[in-house]
Protein: Exocyst complex component
Amino acid sequence: MNSAAKIRRKVAPASLADGGDSADKQEQLLLSSAICNNEDLGPFIRKAFATGKPDSLLHHLRHFARSKESEIEEVCKAHYQDFILAVDDLRSLLSDVDSLKSSLHRSNSTVQSVAVPLLNSLDSFLEARNTFVNINLALHSVHSCIKLLELCSRANLHLSSNNFYMALKCMDAIEGEYVDKIPSVTLKKMLERKIPEIRSYIERKVSKEFGDWLVEIRVVSRNLGQVAIGQASAARQREEELRIKQRQAEEQSRLSLRDCVYALQEEDDEDVLCGAIEAGGNSENGVLGFDLTPLYKAYHIHQTLGLEDRFKQYYFENRKLQLTSDFQVSSMTPFLESHQTFFAQIAGFFIVEDRIMRTSGGLISKLEVENLWETAVSKMCSVLEDQFSRMQTASHLLLIKDYVSLLGVTLRRYGYLVDALLDVLSKHRDKYHELLLSDCRKQIAEALAADKFEQMLMKKEYEYSMNVLSFQLQTSDIVPAFPYVAPFSSTVPDCCRIVRSFIEDSVSFMSYGGQLDFYDVVKKYLDRLLSEVLDGALLKIISSSIHGVSQAMQVAANMAVLERACDFFFRHAGQLSGLPPRMVERSRRQFPLTKARDAAEDMLSGLLKTKVDGFMILIENVNWMADEPPQSGNEYVNEVIIYLETLVSTAQQILPAQVLKRVLQDVLSHISEKIVGALYGDTVKRFNVNAITGLDVDVRLLESFADNQGSLFSDEEASQMKTALAEARQMVNLLLSNHPENFLNPVIRERSYNTLDYRKVVTISEKLRDTSDRLFSTFGTRGSRQNPKKKSLDTLIKRLREAN
Structure:
C-alpha cells in the first residue's frame, strides 16, 4: 500500500509539470471544474471528437483521476480508524442481513403457500366479472336491437297500412335514438341505406295521392259550385215567395178586406246551407262529398319530411294551373249551354280555397287566395264582355246574368269581392233592354195581327181571373156570371201579358245587381215600351187594318181598358222594385198611349162621320123654298138619329162613357158643320124662313137626342154634347132672329153667335128669301113696304161686307 502511494505521489507532480501548453492547461481546468460541479461532460466529449483529439480528453481525465487518488489517500488516512469501525459494523450488518434474508425466505414460502389459492380465486372472480360485464353488454345490445326491430316492424306495419306519418315518426325515433348507438355495423349500414329510401317512397306515395286528389277535386269543385249556387237560387226563390205573400197581404190590406191574412214564418236556412258546406269540408262523408283529408295528409307528411315550403309552392302552382284551365271556354259548345258549368267550376274552386285557407294551418295565405281571385274576376269579366257582345237574345243574356248574380251572392258569403262582375252586368243593361224591347215589339205585332177585334168571350172563372183580375182590369169587385163577354178583345190581355213579362224580366235583370233603388230605370224602359213600342204598334194597326165601325169601336174600347192597365203596369213595377205604392203614385206620368188612343177615337169618329155622311146626303131632298115648315123634321135627321140611337145602344156596352161622349160630340159637331155647310154650299141657291124653321126642328131633334143620353152621362156632360151643335143652332137662331143686325154687337155676338164665321154669315144671309118671294114676284111687290127683318138682315150683310 505504501509503495502504491509512493508511485501515485510521483505521478501527480509529473502531470503538473507536463503541460507546457497553456491551452491544454486551460482545458484541463475547465474539465476539472465541470466534474467537481457535477456538470454534464457531453459538450467536452463532443468537442474532443469534433476536433479529433479524444486522446487529449482521455489524458485529462486520467490526470484528474490521479489527482483525486491522492486526495482519497489523504481522506483515508484521516478516517482510517472510522473506516475500520464501519467495516466491522458492515460485517455485523451483513450477518444480520443474512438472518433477515433467511427469515424473509421462510415468510415468503409461508405467504406463497397461503396466497396461491386466494390468487386462484381472485383470477376466477375477475374472469367471472368480465364474463358478467360482457353478458350485460350483450343483453343491453340485444334489448336495443329488439327495440330497434320493433320500431322497424312498426314502421313496416304503418307503411303497409299507408299510415305514413307514424312511419316517419318511427324513422325519426330510429335515427335519433338507435342509429348512432347500434352495436351491429351491418344493421347500422342497412338502416342508413333504407331510411332515406323509405322517406323517398313515402314522399312519392303521398305525392301520388295528392295528384289523384288534384284530379278529383276539380270534379268535386264543379259539383260543389253547382250545389252552392243552387242553394243560393233556392234561397232567392224563397225570398221571392215571401215578397209575393207580402204583396198579396198589402194588396188585401189596401182593398180593406176584413179577412185576416196569416202567413207562416219560413226558416231562413241560408246559415244551415253554409253549415252543410262547412261540414262537407271536414269529413269524408260530408254533405257535399267535400274531402280535404288527402291534402291535409300530404301537407302534414311534407312538413314532417322538412319539405313544407316546397310543397306549398307545388300546391300553389298546381292549383293556379287548374284555375287557368278552368278559364278555357269551349268554342264547340254554345256559352249558353256551358256557362253554368263554367261559373260553377270557378265558384267551387274558391269555396275549396277558402276552406283550405282557414283550416290548413298556413298551406296557402289569404294574399295568395286574393291574387287568384283577382285573376279569376278579370278573366270572368273578359269572358262576359266577349259573350255579351255576341248575344242577340234578351232571354239568353238574362239567364247568364241571373247565374252570374247567383255566383256573386254565393262567393260574397265567403268574403270575395264581386263588384267588378256586377259592374259588367250593369254595363250591359241598355243592351239587354234594347233586345227585350225588340222581342216585345215582335210579340206585340203578332198579337195585334192575330186579333180580329171582337169582344172576348170567357166561359170559365179561371179565364176571367187570367185575363181580367190578373191585370186589375175589372171595374167592379163582383165576379160576373159566365159566360162573360168582356168589353175588350184578345189584344188587351195579350199585350198586358207581354208588358208584365217585360216588367218582370227588367226587374229580374236589375235585381241583385248591386243597385238597390232601380225603379227609375225600370220605369224608364217601361215608358219606352208603352210610348214607343206598344203605342207605335197600335198606331200602325189602326192606320192599316181597321176598316169597319165595329173594329174601330173595339179598338177605342181596348184603349180605354189599356189606360187602366197602364196604371197596373206602373204599380206592378213599383211592387217588384220594392217601392211603396205612394211613391209610385207620386211619380206617375200621363197616359203613355195618348197617340194611339186619339188615333183610335179619330178613326172611330171618322168612320162614324162617313156613315153619317151617307144619311146627310138626304139633306139635298129638303125643300128650301117650302110653303110650310115640316112638323117632324126632315128625313135626313130622322135617319141620322135612328143610326145614332142604334150606335149608342151598341157602343155603351163596350165604350166607356167618356170615350162615347167624345165620339158623339165629335159626330154631332160634324153634323152641325154639314148642316151649315149645306146652307153655305153652292147646292143651295136660296132658302126661306120655312126651310130654316125646318132646320130648327132638325137641330132640336139632335139636341133632344143629346139630352136623352142623361142615363149615360151627367147633365153637365149632356150639356157639353149639345155644344157640339152650337154652329148650326146659332146659325138657325140668327136666321130666325127678328134683329139679325145684333150680330154686329160684339157683346151679343160673343154671347150668342161666338161659333159663327162672318163670311159664312154673309153668304148664307144673302141666300135667305122672304116667303112671298117667287120667280118674277119682284114686279108685283116693287112698291110695297120692306120687311123690317129683311131690312135688318140687309144691314147686317152690308156692314159685314164693308168690314171685310
User: Anything to note?
Assistant: The two ends are 211 Å apart (CA to CA). The chain has four domains: 46-161, 194-250+289-416, 429-601, 622-771+786-802. The CA atoms of residues 651 and 660 lie 7 Å apart.
